[in-house]
Amino acid sequence: MKYMLLIHQGDAPTPYSAQEWGRLTEDEQKRIGDAYQAINETPGVSPGLQLQPPETATTVRVQGGKTLSTDGPFVETKEALGGYLILEADDLDAAIELASRIPAASMGGAVEVRPVAEW
């Protein structure tokens, strides 16, 4: 089964959050980078992409046949999606185990594990 792991950054520092990232030592930054690299190299993982910060988002809706766009997301910044990956795994337990290794999960964020609908 395929699972999408949605990485909610929360308070977890990223290179895009220069102030928070700058508070980490070089060793801490390297450990985070190495952890993400190891996850991306895990069998069954199709690496996704890291997303720019929430304030760069544009939300699109269509109402009455008219396209409306609004700057920014409609969630609190700390709840915003920071990236994703796809995992092909035997079961939910395997997906949860991988999600627990994503640095954001232990640094103030969370990882949502959701089965991919296969039609």
What do these coordinates show?
The protein has 119 residues and is an alpha+beta fold. It has a single domain, classed as 2-Layer Sandwich (Alpha-Beta Plaits), CATH 3.30.70. It contains 4 helices and 6 strands, in the order E-H-H-E-E-E-E-H-H-E. It has helices spanning 18-22, 26-40, 92-101, 103-106; strands spanning 2-8, 45-50, 58-63, 66-71, 81-88, 110-115. A 4-stranded antiparallel sheet has the order 2-5-1-6. A two-stranded antiparallel ribbon has the order 3-4. Strand 3 and strand 4 (66-71) form a beta hairpin. The longest helix is centred in the N-terminal third of the chain and has 15 residues, at 26-40. The protein starts with a strand and ends with a strand.
Low-confidence stretches: none
Order of helices and strands: EHHEEEEHHE
Count of individual domains:
1
Q: How many angstroms does the end-to-end distance come to?
A: 12 Å
Helix share of residues?
25-40%
Tell me the name of the CATH homologous superfamily: Dimeric alpha+beta barrel
Rg value: 16 Å
Percent range for β-strand residues: 25-35%
Main beta sheet = 4 strands, antiparallel
The CATH top-level class label: Alpha Beta
Q: Which term fits the overall shape?
A: flat
| Spatial strand order of the main sheet | 2-5-1-6
